[in-house]
Specification:
Strand content: over 45%
CATH topology of the largest domain: Methylamine Dehydrogenase, Chain H
Radius of gyration: 26 Å
Helix content: under 10%
Number of domains: 2
Largest sheet: 4 strands, antiparallel
Number of strands: 28
CATH superfamily of the largest domain: YVTN repeat-like/Quinoprotein amine dehydrogenase
Oligomer: single chain
Strand order of the largest sheet: 3-2-1-28
């Protein structure tokens, strides 16, 4: 700084009264500057908070990126470069970290939420597509599509500690609420496996519709819902008996059955409504969980794929793989509010709330 604005050394060591010759305005500037610097030091030393940012994360398979959207304007605020073909995403327990499976790189990238950058990676098997995290055990369970395996990976060491053989082309994976079982969908085998991740074995299988993809579980843990892409339906599995307890078929008006390809599925916190993306049919189906009846179809973009709800249940976000955008739906009004362009072929969407 210029000496006539903030020379604190000069003031401290000047003869008595000589400081008075400094302009008062210069002294005021001096102290204001000193306090500003102190404030910046304090601010920079404080830990950055990345919890409940509200940011919306979209994984884009073909552009090898994650689009980060502002929760108020829905503008893209950051594009994060990842390894090739990012797909499934999950947060760490404290939401300071986002994990994303990169299918063509055989790894899971680790994104720091505070800096919005890839800071690490976890090696997997061939073509990781989907995964879930057992936070209590500190383990990732990842389906390796080309290996036809479920890998159990220790989060701390980043080492694979167990590999379990599954049916061909496993995708969907979900940890049971008890944490002692894992459910895996085999697309080619038309099977859902119940797996003991500690013993490293399949406990039970159940046959469902053609090409099962992803899961949702009722809050009481009694029913496991699985989307079946080429059966145009959701199958409902009774968890205790591990048998098919119901089926919900979809066919929006004007669509052909072969165009209806359910993939993404989620439920609200109360387990009252389920939301199922219908792929090439470009709709989301809203289902009443208790009655297992269709409530309504809502139009989305091309090839509706991944889906997630906001924490308050008021907004539904749908990744449209064929339109390179996401659709934001008002849940109460049951209509699309807007579509937002993202990267190429969006696969999944998560909200940090």
């Amino acid at each position: 700084m210029h000496s006539d604005v903030c020379d604190l050394t000069w003031i401290a060591h000047s003869p008595a009264g000589s400081a008075a010759r400094k302009p008062a305005r210069g002294l005021r500037r001096c102290f204001r500057a000193a306090w500003a610097i102190a404030g910046l030091v304090l601010l920079s030393s404080a830990p950055l908070s990345a919890k409940d940012t509200g940011l919306i994360f979209v994984s884009n398979e073909k552009s090898n990126t994650i689009s980060v959207l502002d929760p108020k304007t829905f503008n893209i605020v950051k594009t994060i470069r990842t390894a090739k073909r990012p797909r499934d995403m999950h947060f760490s327990t404290d939401r300071s970290t986002l994990y994303v499976a990169c299918g063509d790189a055989d790894r899971i990238d680790v994104v720091d939420i505070a800096s919005l950058a890839v800071v690490d990676s976890v090696p997997t098997g061939k073509s990781p597509e989907a995964f879930d995290i057992n936070h209590g055990r500190g383990e990732i369970y990842v389906t390796n599509e080309e290996d036809a395996t479920l890998a159990v990976i220790d989060l701390k060491s980043k080492k694979t500690i167990r590999v379990i053989k599954t049916g061909d082309e496993p995708e969907g994976v979900l940890v049971a609420r008890s944490g002692d079982k894992v459910y895996v969908a085999s697309e080619v085998g038309n099977l859902v496996h119940e797996i003991d991740p500690v013993g490293g074995r399949i406990i039970r299988d159940v046959v469902v519709g053609t090409r099962p993809r992803r899961f949702a579980m009722t809050p009481d843990g009694k029913e496991l819902w699985v989307s079946t892409e080429l059966a145009a339906a959701v199958y409902i599995i009774d968890v205790e008996s591990f048998t098919v307890a119901g089926k919900i078929d979809f066919l929006p008006r004007g669509m052909r059955t072969e165009d209806v390809t359910p993939v993404g599925i989620t439920m609200d916190k109360k387990g009252s409504k389920a939301y199922v993306t219908l792929g090439h049919a470009a709709h989301v189906a809203i289902v009443d969980v208790a009655s297992r009846k269709l409530d309504q179809y809502v139009l989305t973009g091309k090839r509706a794929w991944g889906v997630t709800l906001s924490a308050d249940g008021k907004r539904l976000f749908v990744a449209n793989g064929g339109g390179d955008d996401i659709t934001i739906i008002d849940v109460d009004k049951r209509r699309a509010l807007r579509s937002v362009p993202v990267g190429r072929v969006p696969w999944g969407v998560l909200v940090d709330d």
